[in-house]
TrEMBL record:
Occurrences of domain Pyridine nucleotide-disulphide oxidoreductase dimerisation (ranges): 369-477
Protein name in UniProt: NAD(P)H-quinone dehydrogenase
Record carries keyword Metal-binding: no
Pfam families per the UniProt record, alphabetical: Pyr_redox_2, Pyr_redox_dim
Species of the source: Frankia umida
Amino acid sequence: MTRIVILGGGPGGYEAALVAASLGASVTVVDSDGIGGACVLTDCVPSKALIATSETMTNLALAPGLGIRPHGPGVTADTSSPAVAWGMPSGSDSGTPALTPPEVVGVDPVQVYERVRELAKAQSLDIERRLEREKVEIVHATGRLVGPHAIEASNGETFVGDVVLVATGAAPRILSSAQPDGERILTWRHLYDLKEIPEHLVVVGSGVTGAEFASAYRALGAEVTLVSSRDRVLPGEDLDAARVIEDVFVRRGIEVLNRSRASSVRRIGDGVIVELSDGRTVAGSHALMAVGSVPRTRDLGLTDVGVRLGPGGHVGVDRMSRTSVPGVYAAGDCTGVLPLASVAAMQGRIAMWHALGEAVSPLRLGTVSSNIFTEPEIATVGMSQVMKDAGAVAAEVTTVPLSRNPRAKMMGIQDGFVKLFCRPGSGSVLGGVIVAPRASELILSVSLAVENGLTVDQIAHTFSIYPSLSGSITEAARVLRPRDFFAGFDNPS
């Protein structure tokens, strides 16, 4: 029986364990954080649970535009005006619907955070029970490599395997000039221990994490300032999509400070002062540091056994998840391939399929779909606008605004679009970008097309529900269809 030892119980680790167990291997997982890892306990699961609550508040903001009026004691806002909320001046023609007045609907922060924590714990427990049912041995301890195939745990035991998988994840990046205290100066892992919704949250960093929490906390009623060192929000994303999100942020009252680098964050009594490199300061009740992450690869004994690390400390792996040492694999955020739970899980599965002699295809990053959980969401898969503009890939592209989608009109949705890329001539779908509510659900059809080499003809011939947001995907495909699409329809002979 092949013996597998896995260091780390996050998505890369526990998915690898399930595959290895199903193939008859003896599997031990050494984990110190709790099964599910940071993804389940402090990152993906709790953050998206919090965002689910914020989405409900955003939907309430749409209510007056749909003919729903709050009533009862304490209603003083003019809900007939679409510009009452999100910091818009009265008389604005933005069309932004009013947020339901807080006198009628409010947020209970204690219940919100308790629900988020309980969901994370429950998900972790579900995964742990699944591993136990599959006869996976779980060791709750820290561990380090003391040989190419040996992991020494902090409980004194040493576990030797034919194959070792390192899946230790990453941790929030900490700036020496902005040391988190867990009360006022925070990383995203501190948020769920708060007792209140911050009165004024200063978010430092405008990448995915910063944008998601800025969007969520504004919907939950916090004043939000977003400090971005770049010239726009979400600098690594599709430019058209990022523009939509930044426009929405500004319209909803988020103060966006582009080209503004934070040099330090200091706690002042019950608040914080964020000092910018140009001498300006931003005062707030709390500061959220969203300035990236670092791999958890220090003091694991990796270099002692010959595992090569990159300049940033990431474990170097190939598309089969192999490291520089035979029999030692790595998966997840500690590899720096793509910081996505889905990628970590696939890396872990690929590692076990390969190690145990199963037929397996290398990791294909060109088919990975990702999502940013702002409101609206941004979902992407395959090639990007940057690749097209740089001439890296020949492609045709079209963008269909959601504002002309009938279902979007019915739902009061004004922001967003569907963008598709296809190969000239053949019409093969190369990628797509969707900006919409629940774009994370809509992107699947585009992902299927990219993964399986479908053409815009095939998508255009596929029935979509009328009315539906997904109808904009088939509409985009019809715009991109080859010129001879439906040839002969006008002249049947």
